[in-house]
Design goal:
- By secondary structure, the chain is mainly alpha-helical.
- Helices cover 81% and strands 0% of the residues.
- The protein contains 5 helices and no strands.
- Helix 1 runs parallel beside helix 4, helix 2 runs antiparallel to helix 4 and helix 4 runs antiparallel to helix 5.
- It is globular and about 40 Å long.
Length: 110
């Protein structure tokens, strides 16, 4: 359905905002599940948006919310990695960074 990618994008943003608030409060462990879900849903939204053929309509517009989401995914994954670093889980931190690289390739960042 046409509104489904937007719904997933909005939900992704909500998870990220909660995770960001927990991060700001120094609750790194509590922020991780929200940030992970925000990243996962952000990628799912972009995939569905691209699959629906809607990406060609708004491509290149900087104010386009989809362009903003593409740019924000980098920051989302960075914040997730920082949370893992703050709880001293370096193995999972490196997995988050590796996940960012793979997902970036998958949704066409490069």
């Amino acid at each position: 359905s046409p509104g489904r990618p937007d719904f997933i994008r909005f939900t992704s943003g909500a998870f990220y905002n909660i995770g960001g608030a927990l991060y700001q409060a120094g609750r790194y462990s509590a922020a991780i599940p929200f940030l992970k879900e925000g990243c996962r849903l952000g990628i799912a939204a972009l995939e569905e948006y691209n699959t629906d053929g809607m990406a060609d309509i708004n491509q290149g517009e900087q104010s386009d919310p989809w362009s903003q989401l593409r740019e924000q995914l980098w920051r989302r994954y960075q914040l997730l990695a920082v949370c893992y670093m703050n709880i001293a889980d370096r193995r999972v931190c490196s997995e988050a960074v590796f996940g960012l690289i793979l997902s970036s390739l998958h949704i066409g960042f490069f």
